[in-house]
Design brief:
By secondary structure, the chain is of the alpha/beta class. The chain has 6 helices and 7 strands, in the order H-H-E-H-E-H-E-E-H-E-H-E-E. Strands 3-2-1-4-5-7-6 form a 7-stranded mixed beta sheet. Strand 1, helix 3 and strand 2 form a beta-alpha-beta unit. Bound molecules: S-adenosylmethionine (SAM).
Length: 221
Amino acid sequence: MTTERTLTVDEARRFYDRMGARQDWNRFYEDPAVEVVLRHGDFEHAHSVVEFGCGTGRLAERLLDSHLPPDARYLGLDVSTTMVSLASERLKRFGERSEVRQTKGAPRIEAPDQSFDRFVSTYVFDLLSRTDIGAVVAEAYRVLTPGGRLCAVSLTHGRTWFGRSVSKTWQSIWSLSPATLGGCRPIELPGFIDTARFEISHLEVVSSYGLSSEAIVASKR
Ligand SMILES: C[S@@+](CC[C@H](N)C(=O)[O-])C[C@H]1O[C@@H](n2cnc3c(N)ncnc32)[C@H](O)[C@@H]1O
């Protein structure tokens, strides 16, 4: 396997501190895949959600406004100071239902075992090293209650001729300069999900403007 040069935590923090609200411009290709986890994550029956890499808090706002029951609580984690302040501002109208915390970027969730019933992460696994992806999935397993759901979206390799060409071009640019693309490259998420620990209930590749994303919902056994 070739060595991958993913962004360091400091590089990721600097990039997303600069990126700020422009992250939401990516909604044109991100939203269709995020819709899939919203449809299949059964958020209407969730009580406690943690999001790893919450960005500007856009997904959290949608969850709190339209999907989660009124007594459900949300915790957003992000390494970027800018993202944490944008998300905190956006979510402040939800009062005690939501909390946003800045982390040091470690693949660790500062929370007791089995303290959430949904673990959400969209377009973050694809910028982490393979070791850190595995570590975050292991943390998801630890903090989820039995039956709790891991709901994740990441860039993936295209499945059609056009999609494959786009992801090959993306991968080439990323190999030269990961920061140009915010550190994100196509990955295959199911390869990181241990099926002895999780049961994958939904897996879908969604293509938008030639970019392919993989949406996965998996329940903790
Ligand atoms: C591509 S953005 C996606 C943001 C949001 N989830 C979305 O879908 O719009 C990646 C986010 O992950 C955050 N991030 C990157 N590395 C991280 C780490 N090691 N721990 C926590 N957050 C991280 C970035 O600051 C950024 O907000």
